């Protein structure tokens, strides 16, 4: 019986776990991992499978049983991070967008980034005006079907491809015109390169907004970019804080704090409230990683960061990868024959059907094409379900932040209707906080949409982890509708702050008592025990300890012994 139990335990420890990773072209990579396998092992397997050397821009994302998204930490056990039953389902995605994707060394890396941005375009994460959208879609068309051929491409052929959540017939004709007249002769690699060059100039290149509430209860979206921290709100301008102005980030429960040091020694603390403590911790970790990757010169400068000012409280996290400058220097040293690239071609895609031949979604009526505008916050609200976590790219290569587009946005509403407008949203790059003066009517309409309308649910399969797609979509939809209806008033937040302060004081008292107890225990061992350890012996032989022992400790011990004898005698007499 004992041997059978031991053999069963041994098999349990050596158990293999099935793991499936969805790649950027919607293919799947399956493997088995052991219980103690770390994230780096799986990531190296994927990079070897993809023949990828410039791998620091990529990561593996998963969803826990509570529907919270995470990036897989490479230094920790995969099984312990997943917190769910096997088989495990994860996604290989771009984690840190390259500052200049066209400057990547190898074509295979550019192709993978191209696939990611193409997904962003379809799922409403990359927002742009009509002319930019038509050009990007034409580049995709050229990369996938090649030059225009009248024999193969009849009138309206571009309508068989779905580049965006929804688009009009006018936009389809514009896409076909650009593809037919301007892109002839471009190879797939050249079209992809031109696509990257255009995409990096857009203001929402790589945006992954985290939904929050500010101290007044207004909806806000926080995002991290290669150049700093961005705040977006429905009735305020977009603000940009450079990484060298970000002094510290921390969180407590659902509250996120950003400490900003600006010119003239002006210090600002921004406070936001996330929907859950887990979402707030994820926001904090994303900020720490992005700041380390884009700001530091060397990975040796990375330090362990605590989420609290007190050493015994809060979470501790350390970015474990290389920084952007080291990645660029390493890429410049790559010398090998360019690996063969197997492009997806016309294979139907599950979550990004830009290459799916089928009936296109109905377009917005002509009478509404010019009247309806998709605001930036509506588009960002739809990104809550995009399961994407990557930094932002400014259209400028300098330090200044170039304004975002206001109404020229692609997004997915609850009915998956989107219109692209040529109107430009131009917030300034001013410091915090500046009220929005222009287009107030549009922004007030937007506020009603964010607070009242249900959020969209992206149909990307990467958001499902170990659960059926439709069931998870319903759960996510309910969660997001609750988020859009409001995260609670500020009165509860104030009470929560008081409770946190009381808990902090109690923790401090407990730690102080614990330290005193440990010191007392060590003192008793030094003075009363006969342990002949070199460390104790050296302490006992010091003049200071001998003086303390004979002048203070011995009299105190005799006093305690006398008191104890007196108490015992009283007890025996009674």
UniProtKB/TrEMBL annotation:
The chain crosses the membrane at residues 505-527. One of its GO terms (molecular function) is cytoskeletal protein binding. Keywords: Cell junction, Membrane, Phosphoprotein, Transmembrane, Transmembrane helix. GO terms for biological process: actomyosin structure organization. It is found in: Cell junction, Adherens junction. Residues 342-367, 385-408 are annotated as: Disordered. Residues 17-298 form the FERM domain. It comes from the Eukaryota. SMART domains: B41, FA, FERM_C. GO terms for cellular component: adherens junction; cytoskeleton. Residues 388-397 have a biased composition (Polar residues). PANTHER family: 4.1 G PROTEIN, FERM DOMAIN-CONTAINING PROTEIN 5. May be involved in regulation of cell migration. May regulate cell-matrix interactions via its interaction with ITGB5 and modifying ITGB5 cytoplasmic tail interactions such as with FERMT2 and TLN1. May regulate ROCK1 kinase activity possibly involved in regulation of actin stress fiber formation. This is FERM domain-containing protein 5.
